[in-house]
Amino acid sequence: MQTSPKVLVVYKRSSLEVAGKSLPSLSKVKDFIANHSRHKETLYVIEHNLNELGLKYKKISRNKKIDYSIYNIIITVGGDGTLLEAARNTGSNQLLLGVNSDPNWSIGKFCHSNADNFKKIMSRIINKTANINKLHKLKVVIQDHKSSTKTIECLNDILVCHANPAAMGRYKIFINRQAEEHRNSGIWISSAAGSTGAILSAGGIRVPKESRSIQYRPRELYNLKGNLYKLTGGLISPGKVIKLQSMMSQGRIFVDGAHVHYAFPYGCRAIVSSSSNYINLVTR
């Protein structure tokens, strides 16, 4: 007898719920109200369809503490931010399906499902006919002054910069046998999956999503005393690393957006590479 999969539904709070009383009168926030309604309706459809398919599930808000490891199928309801949070906590033995709860509001590049096609895609998952993309993560190892380390893995990208967006970022970068000191507004480092996001807007290139190469792109390099920079962006092949050493008293490493970040003060090092770990993203 086949064991029923353990299903987790991770959902975000709507922008209206997050903003709460900080918003002006409801008559002036029609877009927020419409988004809230569409988000709640999608969540209802997801639960209704799971019940129709006979699947038991656990529903948890993304701002709660979640043990992802005990589930076979993780369904995110929201946008890319919700999926990226789940992706940081899932592994190669799990399936991840992103549901865009409101395509009029969220971009959802990683979210290949919505309220209209969710039941069809879930049926394919159950019948093992779903299309699945294998997407490799980034691995970031942060070393502090006391030689203690912290390892983070993420699906999309990281941004290394000053904590104050108006302040100049300073760091040393080491790639292969080359080293430079950079002064700029920060540096993007992305996986192949993240190459269509912020790094592309900063002048990077699209990388085939199945690739294990990582890409880096410094932002707004300040040309100090006429020196010409050589490490201005490019691809790093699997097995190679990018090393950064902070020259900032208030440096930060932002992971997959603004919500997750780590201190990166003067002297700390970060080693970035392609992880051997990956996610199984359901696309249809």
Q: Fraction of residues in helices?
A: 10-25%
CATH superfamily of the largest domain: Probable inorganic polyphosphate/atp-NAD kinase, domain 2
Helix-strand string:
EHHEEHEHEEEEEEHEEEEEE
How much is the average pLDDT? 93
Number of helices: 5
Question: How far apart, in Å, are the first and last alpha carbons?
Answer: 27 Å
What does this structure look like?
This protein has 284 residues and is α+β, with helices and mostly antiparallel strands. It folds into 2 domains: 7-130, Rossmann fold (3-Layer(aba) Sandwich); 136-276, Probable inorganic polyphosphate/atp-NAD kinase, domain 2 (Tumour Suppressor Smad4), CATH 2.60.200. It has 5 helices and 16 strands. It has helices at residues 15-19, 30-52, 80-87, 118-126, 198-201, and strands at 7-11, 57-61, 73-78, 95-100, 132-143, 149-154, 157-162, 169-175, 178-184, 187-190, 214-218, 234-236, 242-246, 251-255, 260-263, 269-282. The longest helix has 23 residues, at 30-52. It is globular and about 65 Å long.
